Request: fold
Amino acid sequence: MGALLSSTEDEREPLLNTTPQSDSGFVQPAGRVYSRRWLVLGLFSVLGFMQGMVWNTWGPIQNSAKQAYGFTSIDIAMLVLCGPVGFIPWFLFMWLMDKKGLRVTMLLSAFLMVVGTGVRSIPLTDLSIKKWLIHGGQLLNGLAGPTFMSAPPLLSTTWFAPDQRATATAVAALLSYLGAACSFLIGPLVVPAPNQTAVLHCSADKSSAHIRDRVQIVLYAEFAMVFLLFAAVVAYFPSRPPLPPSVAAASQRLSYRSSFCRLLRNFRFLMIALAYSVPLGILAGWSGVLDMILTPAKVSQVHAGWIGFWSTVGGCVVGIGVARFADSMRGMLKLILLLMFSGATLSSTWLTLTCLPDSGSHLPLTTATLYTSCILVGIFIISSVPMFFELFIETVYPVPEGITCGVVTFLSNLFMGALLFFLTFYHTDLSWLNWCLTGSCLFSLLLILLFRESYDRLYLDVFVSV
Reply:
């Protein structure tokens, strides 16, 4: 199966001109890296940061939003679901990325974010219209999600040398997670809780008005930041550099239709795609109701938010560090993922046994063990995202990077949606969610163990180049 699905020699032929004028006698590729690549990476990453922050605006301040705008729990859930719903037309963004390039896709995504954050921030006294505008704005922001979740490997391949690709992928992919985590700090810091405003104001109406004013400050600030970034993308965000940085960046890719056929026939890709999408989707749904899961363990909503924040921040920091190591020690992606998901399986099992009901046999429950196990789960799984992305591209090369990662991010959102769907029926005892998380980590670990890795893109850059 692997031999039949590997790239042909014609597909591996480099498009770069070569020159044999090297001191060592080797033929050197005429590729070049430009310092402007850091500007391109910065713009993409900060926009992804803002997309994640806008998506998670309402979760951390849901109690304040309920009093100020009359939101119900269903409204808050719908605002959160705008993220996965935004992935429904993902194939259109992948087609646009493949046919028109990264600049056009970024302009469209940033424009959707500008309009979305703009309509949310319109000051209206009619709360019914305001609620509709907020929902519409969240949906428009969600539609930009496929670009920022799927394009990092395309950006890193197009702009960065082979020994910097994993690091660039990690920065571009993980900043959106960091934006969602930072909203846990910014929202509660600016918007007071209802019980705090009740002390400051003599009536519920004044309290609600004060909360709305503070929420409006957050909405204005997010709109202003997104607008400035959109203007920067309009001013400068090229699809590609004048000269490609590597042979792989200059090589031909499969067509849009051929790419999907290749992916669906590649059993090894389907294995590693499930190894990524199942635990990432389960973790996303599990994190969204973390406060409800930890309530039987006497953990407050505030502390649950801090657990989610530190697990995400830790995952981003560790992910970038591991990616830098992967750049210096290429060809070790499978080993790195095995180590990560061994840790994820052990820490999720630790968490599950700690949170078992009192009637069962379980490990001692302390604040330290609960915090440590929850944070370790997030660190191990989130930090694996860039490693998976790089392994996807190596496995299915020359399928375009955007299409490959678009498929797997859609699958992860599909599993998250399935988990949230079952949650509507089984919401009395949420301990089963911990078992789902543990099972998904073990499932992924087994798939990675059975996976046979290959490095077709690395073969081009290291061997064909010389």
About this structure: Confidence is low (pLDDT under 50) at residues 1-30, 197-202. The longest strand covers residues 18-19. The two ends are 29 Å apart (CA to CA). Residues 199 and 262 are 62 Å apart (CA to CA).
